[in-house]
From TrEMBL:
EC nos: 3.10.1.1
Similarity section: Belongs to the sulfatase family.
Matches recorded under Gene3D superfamilies: Alkaline Phosphatase, subunit A
Protein name, per record: N-sulfoglucosamine sulfohydrolase
One Gene Ontology molecular-function label: N-sulfoglucosamine sulfohydrolase activity
Organism per entry: Nonomuraea angiospora
Top enzyme class: hydrolase
Length: 455
């Protein structure tokens, strides 16, 4: 019988938040154990750094402009989805949380589906554990392999212990889920805020709230994995953990920066992955999961997939064509259209902002909460921070970062004449990728290059 497949996702967890990816100690003990039992991928990226289209790309193995779900709309008719393909091999399928973020729901043919309210607003580890156990036991009784997508709603806002939680969730909703197993306060050493953010008191406060919510996400993972152990199916199950996008703060979620799309990918497959394995060379995209799951199930992938199987990498074998990764952005949850394209390799990050015209202003959900207002307040007395805030709102048509020297993308080199050769190389690679995938903005980008640089 093919392996069971357990896909666990976090909501808005940064790629460097888990301890096994360099994050603060004590935030993710369960994920750290899972990583010690399996393989981590240090250069894994989602296709697009916002929830619904990111998940749609995972479940179709296609870029958003090729599956119809560029923003918060349904996947196009006729595009194969993973659960329907796995059904051909006899798989039973279930989803816990984020049900409405895969549309149309009926296209997936879930055998079991529980929404956030049935799971303590997507934040109750016990509810996730019990639902997982029931699903696994039913599949065993039927003698069928299973695919379970367990989606934690943490660490998505509202963060644990914050005023936003009180404002957005009524008392009855808050009573339906527990506090994290560890809450991070001012006395906890979390190593400072992420380097792409200013180290301001309110930013640090929100970051600790975010870490507390990340710990509760880890509690959910622990409960689901406990159900796997208690049903005796762990040795027969391919387990994958990832986040759908980066932290919901400026310069992360809903953008194309490294910290926007990098995801903490962990894979444990007994007999296939090496305990404590690390793949820190190859760039992988989460559209690669669809063909990987098909290969694991012994199925041919449907025609039209954009991803490639990860099985060679899971076996510890090299795989060519993994020198760079591309990401996109189209639309915010509020329907704001900000077209972006990005190419990342082991040295440079290049971004084309189609929307940036010098006057249009960017606005997205990552600017709610404490961090953005704190940045604006501090900018009144700090010209460097004021310029960073202006840049965030307006950008420039092109950005280039030397990520070896500037991991947090603080110094844009697109206008540096000494980097012209690197910039041109990234442009040509992006142009070729857009042509190869039928990107609808191909002609726009080609015209931009011709008008602005004569390419």
């Amino acid at each position: 019988m093919p392996p069971n497949i357990l896909l666990i996702t976090a909501d808005d967890m940064g790629g460097d938040t888990p301890g096994c990816f360099g994050g603060p100690a004590e935030v993710t003990p369960t994920l750290d154990r899972l990583a010690a039992e399996g393989t981590t991928f240090g250069r894994a990226h989602v296709a697009i750094a916002v929830c619904q289209p990111s998940r749609s790309a995972i479940m179709t193995g296609r870029w958003p402009h090729r599956n119809g779900a560029q923003g918060f709309e349904p996947i196009a008719d006729g595009v194969p989805v993973l659960t329907r393909v796995l059904r051909e091999a006899g798989y039973m399928s279930g989803i816990l949380g984020k049900v409405e973020h895969l549309q149309p729901v009926e296209a997936f043919g879930w055998d079991h589906a529980l929404g956030m309210r049935e799971l303590g607003m997507g934040r109750d580890p016990r509810a996730y554990g019990e639902a997982s156990r029931r699903f696994m036991e039913e599949a065993a009784a039927r003698g069928r392999p299973w695919f379970l997508m367990a989606n934690a709603h943490d660490p998505h806002r509202p963060y644990s212990g914050g005023q936003d939680e009180l404002d957005r969730f009524p008392a009855e909703a808050r009573a339906s889920y527990p506090a994290p197993s560890k809450v991070f306060g001012p006395a906890d050493d979390v190593g400072g805020v992420p380097g792409f953010l200013p180290d301001l008191p309110e930013v640090a406060r929100e970051y600790r709230e975010y870490l507390s919510s990340s710990r509760r996400c880890d509690d959910v993972v622990a409960a689901v994995l406990r159900a796997l152990d208690e049903t005796g199916t762990a040795d027969d199950t391919l387990v994958v953990f990832l986040s759908d996008n980066g932290i919901a703060v400026p310069f992360a979620k809903a953008n194309c920066y490294l910290q926007s799309s990098r995801t903490p990918l962990i894979v444990r497959w007994p007999g296939m992955t090496r305990p404590g394995g690390r793949e820190d060379t190859a760039f992988v995209s989460m559209i690669d999961l669809f063909p990987t799951f098909c290969a694991a199930a012994g199925l041919p992938g449907p025609a039209g997939l954009d991803g490639r199987t990860l099985l060679p990498l899971l076996r510890g074998e090299p795989q060519d064509g993994r020198e760079a990764v591309f990401t996109v952005f189209h639309e915010t949850a509020a329907k704001g259209r900000y077209e972006m394209r990005c190419r990342l390799d082991d040295r440079f990050g290049y971004i084309w902002n189609e929307w940036s015209d010098g006057t249009r202003e960017y606005r997205a959900e990552n600017m709610t909460g404490r961090t953005w207002p704190a940045m604006l307040a501090a900018a009144s007395g700090d010209e460097r921070l004021a310029e960073r805030a202006r840049f965030y709102r307006h950008r420039t048509p092109e950005e280039l970062y030397d990520l070896r020297a500037d991991l947090h993308a603080l110094a844009d080199l697109a206008g540096d004449p000494d980097r012209r050769k690197d910039l041109d190389a990234a442009r040509q690679d992006l142009l070729a990728w857009m042509a190869g995938t039928g990107d609808p903005l191909l002609d726009t980008y080609r015209s931009y290059l011709q008008v602005n640089i004569g390419a």
